[in-house]
């Protein structure tokens, strides 16, 4: 299972500075990505926040939201369940072990804990701290 954090997923569905790299990565690596309820919520919110910030129109955001559903229907994204008490307990363990040395934030912890809890074999991100944390816990990780 491959886990992509929200920064990577956002770059796939809505144009930003990392879109070209994310698309290039996916074109070189035929990949099915996990999509948890956590990622879906954060991704939907990031798209809507782009409208608020004036980075895209409502119609562009609607197309990005529809793309997520289309990618699920096509099998490019796979609905993946999380057991939240387990994810939160693991995030706390990761915090105790890595926050003072890596400076990871709560959302970084949640993404890596979620990836670990679904036994992800690869972690994709645009964030250096998440990359470092994923690698520290033994998940193969790529930053685009």
Description of the structure:
The structure is a single chain. The protein has 144 residues and is mainly α. It has a single domain (2-143), classed as 5'-nuclease (Rossmann fold), CATH 3.40.50.1010. It is 63% helix and 12% strand. It is built from seven helices and five strands, in the order βααβααβααβαβ. Helix 7 links the parallel strand 4 and strand 5. Helix 1 (6-13) packs across helix 2. The two termini are 18 Å apart.
CATH hierarchy: architecture? 3-Layer(aba) Sandwich
CATH class annotation: Alpha Beta
Count of all domains = 1
Q: What is the CATH fold-level name?
A: Rossmann fold
The residue-averaged pLDDT reads 97
End-to-end distance = 18 Å
Largest sheet: 3 strands, parallel
Which word captures the global form? globular
**What is the H level of CATH, i.e. the homologous superfamily?**
5'-nuclease
Total helices: the number is: 7
Classification by helices and strands: mainly alpha
Share of helix among residues?
55-70%
- Count of DSSP E strands? 5
Rounded to an integer in angstroms, the radius of gyration calculated over CA atoms is 15 Å
DSSP strand (E) fraction?
A: 5-15%
What are its keywords?
144 residues, mainly alpha, Rossmann fold, two-stranded parallel sheet
Q: What's the structural blueprint in terms of helices and strands?
A:
Layout lengths: L1 E3 L1 H8 L5 H10 L4 E3 L1 H16 L5 H17 L2 E3 L4 H19 L3 H12 L4 E4 L2 H9 L3 E4 L1
Parallel strand pairs: 1-4, 2-3, 4-5
